[in-house]
Design a protein that fits this description.
about 260 residues, alpha/beta, Spore Coat Polysaccharide Biosynthesis Protein SpsA, Chain A, about 30% helix, about 20% strand, cytoplasm, lipopolysaccharide biosynthesis, KdsB, Nucleotide-diphossugar_trans
Length: about 260
């Protein structure tokens, strides 16, 4: 399958304006993300989708492939869909522009999951290991069936343990934290992006529930650890420290299907 990785990037951010262009490491933040995507074996194309001239110019400067999109998109998924409409790829991976530590193996796992018959979409999860994470409404949880298909995503603790306490040491893991990276069949992405928000999506404020709510299939892969995004100045400072210690070869690891 021909797989395109599309990285939506915008300049505006309530907590860290202009973060794609932060450059304390000697590279733009968006450049770190782009280079991680290029390490994935599945990548036929890696594209940065933006509506900002400054980001477009920066991507051109470091030799990347930028595409200018409309400025009125409500979500990164909509921005990715606009680019996907111009592509001939079979699968489109939506990789957030503020996740410079995402393991390329995890990207390849997404593409691998899309080879499953009937898969409209794929995403990733990591085992939850403590009660605080399990109960935190800012952490999205996911449950899947025995074939690795997502059954539901929620900000609430799922699966709920009615009697006793959850066992976070059990394997295979029953309690999973969702990681917000996605692969789509191109035609499915174009269709779902044009659908109105689903009531479940509106209730939980989770876009992926539009897929489940309308009967789509999401395959779930499990990775051993969460990748850390850059949302705040403190997050970026942590990434800079990590990069100075590890360099470009810091991200790596193993993966498996859920």
């Amino acid at each position: 399958m021909r797989t395109a990785i599309v990285i939506p990037a915008r300049f505006a951010s309530s907590r860290l304006p202009g973060k794609p262009l932060l450059r304390e490491t000697g590279k733009y933040l968006i450049q770190h993300v782009f280079e991680q995507a290029q390490k994935a074996k599945c990548a036929s194309d890696v594209i940065v989708a933006t509506d900002d001239d400054r980001i477009f110019a920066a991507v051109r400067e470091f030799g990347g492939t930028p595409v200018m999109t409309r400025a009125d998109h409500v979500s990164g998924t909509d921005r990715v869909a606009e680019v996907a409409a111009r592509l001939t790829a079979d699968v489109v991976i939506n990789l957030q522009g503020d996740e410079p530590q995402l393991d390329p193996d995890a990207i390849d796992l997404l593409a691998e999951l899309m080879t499953a018959p009937g898969s409209d979409m794929a995403t990733l999860a990591v085992p939850i290991t403590d009660a605080e994470t399990y109960r935190n409404p800012n952490v999205v949880k996911v449950v899947c069936d025995d074939r690795g298909r997502a059954m539901y995503f929620s900000r609430s603790p799922i699966p709920m343990v009615r009697d006793g306490e959850p066992d976070f040491t059990a394997r295979p893991a029953r309690f999973l934290q969702h990681l917000g990276v996605y692969a789509y069949r191109r035609d499915f992405l174009l269709r779902i992006a044009g659908e109105p928000p689903h009531p479940l999506e509106q209730s939980e404020k989770l876009e992926q529930l539009r897929v489940l709510g309308t009967g789509g299939t999401i395959m779930l892969g499990q990775v051993p650890r969460a990748h850390r995004g850059v949302d705040t100045p403190a997050d970026y400072a942590d990434f800079v420290r990590w990069y100075r210690q590890n360099g470009d070869n810091g991200a790596g690891g193993t993966r498996r299907a859920a």
